[in-house]
Specification:
two-stranded antiparallel sheet; 281 residues; alpha+beta; globular; three-stranded antiparallel β-sheet
Length: 281
């Protein structure tokens, strides 16, 4: 049996609060077997139940994390920095095959205005390479690159740039540019991005930690998935409230339709849900 033991979640532990049942779904046209369909729906359900909801079903966040995988493929042997052969098929082939399966699924989904990107993080954790799957709403990304052109333009990032390029450039930028770029991409308001960058600079230069208050926007799985920091004592502004209520409307809509796409085991037919949503909206 194929497995995803190194995923940050187990495929059998998804939230399953509803009881409504549906017929067995048809496979997406690009999947080759039941395992791929299960993998596709599981990845998408994980994201929809968390912050990716606000990119996939609403114009709240230009980009959102869908799911994160950790694979033991990073080189930890400094003597092999110049080697062409770092991995062996016998030891690492199953991980490379899993990554290829996931990449295939992300590449072949066809949803209006949505792209899925697979980004290996530059920094590894020991031998674990972090692979971040994110969803991008293209129209929002283009609007953001125009609005914040005084920041993104320095990297040659302008409206129309492929989202894989945008994410890769920001991932490999300097530490504070990386914080700011991701802050904008993940839909945090300007004041929160400014605070996080300045607080990080203060911590790194003086060792002083600036106290903060977190602004949580609930997702289906609860709080802690769409959250950003403000200075301690900060009172939410109209900007924060607007984000909160836009997200609340998206979550309410998802809660209403989610029960119509449940399998007998309470997992979600997530790709069919997305297809139907875009077909009717």
């Amino acid at each position: 049996m194929k497995h995803l033991s190194l995923c940050v979640i187990a495929l059998s532990t998804f939230v399953s609060c509803q009881t409504h049942k549906t017929e067995t779904p048809e496979q997406a046209t690009f999947v080759t077997d039941a395992y791929q369909q299960h993998l596709l729906d599981s990845i998408l359900q994980y994201g929809l139940d968390r912050e990716a909801l606000f990119t996939l079903l609403g114009n709240v966040k230009p980009m959102s994390s869908v799911i994160t995988f950790y694979y033991p493929v990073a080189n930890v042997d400094s003597s092999r920095r110049t080697d062409a052969t770092v991995l062996s098929r016998a030891e690492h082939g199953r991980y490379l095959d899993e990554m290829q399966s996931i990449q295939y699924l992300m590449n072949n989904m066809d949803l209006p205005d949505i792209r899925f990107i697979t980004l290996p993080y530059q920094e590894a954790h020991e031998d674990k390479r972090i692979i971040q799957i994110s969803a991008v709403r293209l129209s929002m990304l283009d609007s953001l690159l125009k609005k914040q052109e005084s920041f993104f333009g320095q990297f040659g990032l302008v409206p129309g740039t492929d989202p894989n390029v945008v994410a890769s450039v920001i991932e490999n930028a300097g530490v504070y540019e990386r914080y700011r770029g991701y802050g904008y991409l993940f839909g945090y308001p300007d004041h929160a991005v400014d605070f996080f960058v300045q607080a990080s600079l203060e911590l790194n230069t003086t060792g002083t930690f600036i106290e903060r208050r977190f602004f949580n926007i609930p997702a289906y799985a609860g709080e802690g998935y769409f959250v950003y920091a403000n200075p301690d004592g900060y009172e939410p502004s109209d900007v924060d409230s607007a984000i909160y209520y836009r997200a609340h409307d998206v979550l309410s809509g998802y809660e209403h339709i989610r029960q119509n796409y449940l399998n007998a085991d309470s997992t979600v037919q997530a790709y069919r849900l997305l297809q139907d949503f875009f077909r009717h909206n």
